[in-house]
Amino acid sequence: MKILVAVDESEESMHALMWTIDHHLVSANEIDSLVVLHVQKPLELYAYPIGPAVYASAVVIDSVKKAQQQDSEELLIRVKEICRNKRIESHTVIIDGDPKEIICQTIDQMNIDLVVLGSRGQGMIKRALLGSVSDYCAHHANCPVLIVRPRKEQEQRS
Amino acid sequence: MAAETVMVVGMDESEHSQYAFHWTIEHFFSNSNSSSIFKLVVVHAKPSPTSSFALAGPGAIDVIPYIDFDLKKTASRIIEHAKTFCENKSVDNVHFEIVEGDPRSVLCDSVERHKADMLIVGSHGYGTFKRAVLGSVSDYCAHHAHCSVMIVKKPKSNH
């Protein structure tokens, strides 16, 4: 079974990855069983306040891009380490774009059987939406969607 | 990591629910050692006889036993199908339950009672408007269950 875990900088998505492995959802014997995807959101170049200039200069764009790439690489290093400690092989992928669309596209392209997403756990507030990515994927992904609750909610029960 | 993973799967008569159940068995319980790592709890929420319609007028009370009998028959049929399917696929670490009540609270309650790690539900794939009007068990569970929730949709087309 091919499982895709989508991760971003949030602790919840790292927890979702660890939860998936700890609960035996990933088959240790199968190759290509676990794919970890990180989607890099496009930079909002006009959003950075840099003195009187309205748009970021090329230098600033470059350094922000570099910082983003570094963050992504560090994220995947963490992912690889988690997988190695749990003796699971993983295939890591970084794609640029809008997370919810890219996740759904990747599911189709890689014939994924199950996608796992973290959740910010806003379930305590009645009728609150799931995070927009999990909500979108729950409705649009062409495979089952597993939404992993954050640790403290799960611990509250026991 | 040695403890078994407890999964509760909600089940009713709908095709979507059956699909979710079959998907679960086929993907998680296909290995011979599955029974040591996964425990499955199949829960059917049987509607109470008074919940599905409004009773009015004299003599209405007499109808309830007949309705209840019919609901019980349906519930048994659903669970029997699930049992047979599990036997055919050699799944033995499985427990079956019929609980009376609203599916939303029955499923969330089952999760608590069995200390489930995961709740699995099918989904009708209704659009936003239909969901708002008809209500959605999978939506409710995704927000309120105190465990991870897996939503299994029947694919719209075969590709």
Automatic annotation (TrEMBL), chain A:
Which domain of life, per UniProt? Eukaryota
UniProt cross-references to SUPFAM superfamilies, sorted A to Z:
Adenine nucleotide alpha hydrolases-like
Please give the CDD domains that the UniProt record associates with this protein. Answer: USP_At3g01520-like (cd23659)
Q: Which residues form the UspA domain?
A: 2-149
Q: Tell me which InterPro entries the record gives.
A: Rossmann-like_a/b/a_fold, Universal_stress_UspA, UspA
This protein's name: Universal stress protein family protein
Q: What is the lineage of its organism?
A: Eukaryota, Viridiplantae, Streptophyta, Embryophyta, Tracheophyta
Automatic annotation (TrEMBL), chain B:
What CDD domains does this protein map onto? USP_At3g01520-like
Q: Which residues are the signal sequence here?
A: none
- Ranges for the UspA domain? 7-153
Pfam families listed in its UniProt record: Usp
Protein known as? Universal stress protein
Q: Which organism is it from?
A: Zostera marina (Eelgrass)
